Every structure is written in structure tokens, then in C-alpha cells.
Structure of RteC domain-containing protein:
Amino acid sequence: MKSHFTQILANLEQDLAETETRIPNLLERYKAGALLADRAAARLKDAVPEHFGGTAIEIYFFKHIQPYVLSRKIYYSQLFRIEADRPKSIRDDYKKFLDQELCRITMFFEVHNALYLYYRGGATDKDAQYFLRGSQYNNEYPTGLDGVLDTRYCTVTSFRLAELIALEDVSKYLIGKLEQIHALPRNLHYKPRLRWTHSKTDLVELVYALHVNGSFNDGAAELKQIFEWLENSLEIDFGNVYSNFRDIRMRKKETASFLTRLKDGLLKRIEELE
């Protein structure tokens, strides 16, 4: 049973990792991530037995499996909302928007600080209270959750824990966006007019080629500067570009396949015009 749960979790993590590299548009990527997490949650729900056969496996499920899967749905749904609602052109308005989102998350953590510290601190003494469906604690529903939770699949604590895990990652995302804003010139209002529709790996391949050939600032621009500029210009979150470049280097057939396609396409167009 435990191995089945962990396999669902592993499959979700793999699917989300592929989505992060495959879909360059932020809104489309976050919508796809939320959908993947929702499907994984449905599979997990179908796998939950009426009786676990022991408290250890039940605690493990409601402490480590179910909260994480649900947290991915909350996380990607929150990112979708943030990117859909954010001010697109005025930098100060965007900064204020991000600050407000961070403040909202901070207030939530202050309310549920005890559970967060218990989980992150690796404590186990209250596991039976927090992570067993039949505990008195999990059958006293706070306002807002009474009648909402499917108590066979989700408990009060596992739901709150999922929110904490998700919002912790959302806060890191927001802080990263704020750091990007502070690194930009004051007079730069970035409102993307174009979007990259090939894969992020293709763009990483192109950027590395341009950097090697000194195409920016007479060769003085650093890779990090180029990627940050493109993130703001094309509304793309590259994530770990070094991981993408490693994948490019490990290609067995043709290393610079995107550059080859660009060259072939250009030569074909030139021939057609002759």
C-alpha cells in the first residue's frame, strides 16, 4: 500500500518537472500543473482504504503523501491566479501587488505557526492527534471547513499542512519576483509583446550560442544577465537553466538540434527567394 502511494507521488513529481521544461507560457504551465496535481489527487483518493490496517501507514499517508499532493494543486493554482491578476506594465504597482501577496501568506503562517513548526521540525509526538482520521482533533471542524472536507481522504490537519507547504513555495516564488524587480532599472516598464512558443530548452540553446559568440554588450554580458532580461521581456521563468544545458550536452544524436533547425530553415527560405 505504501509503495503504491509513493509511486503516485513520484509520478506526479516527474510529470510536473516535465511540464516545467515543456511549457514556456506561465499561465499555461501553471494551469497544466494544477490539472496534473488534481489528477494525482483523484488517483490517491481512489487508493485510500476504509481501514489502513495500522496507525503507522495512516499517519504516513496523512503526514507525507496526501498533504504534498494537495499542496501541488494549491501551489500551481495560486501561481496561476497571481500571474493572471498581477499588474502587467507599471513596476511600482507590480511590487505593491507582490508585497500584498506576501503579507497575506505571512498572516496565514502566523495563525498556523504551531503546525508549521511541528512539521518542519520533524516532531512526531502529536502524530496520532494530527494525522489519524479518528482523532478528536480532526473531528472538530473549524469554521470554513465544516462540510467541505472529504474526511475519508482528507483531515483538518492534512489540509492545513498542504496549504502551508504550498504557500511556503509560493512565498519563495514571490520573493524571487521581487528580487528581479529590484535588479531592474527604475524606468523599465516591461510589458511583453511577444512570447516564446518553442520549448525552454530551445531558447536556452540559443542563448548559450549567442553568449559564446559575444552577441550582447560586445561579449561583456553574463549569462545570468541575458536570462534575466529574457525572463522579463518574454514572461518566461527559466528555472534551472544549467539543468537544461546539461540535457543539451547529453543528447546522443545531435547536440545543437535547435540551432541546426534554425540554420536549415533559413537556408531553405533563402533558396526559395532565389
In short: The chain is about 70% helix and 0% strand. Residues 186-192 have pLDDT under 50 and may be disordered.
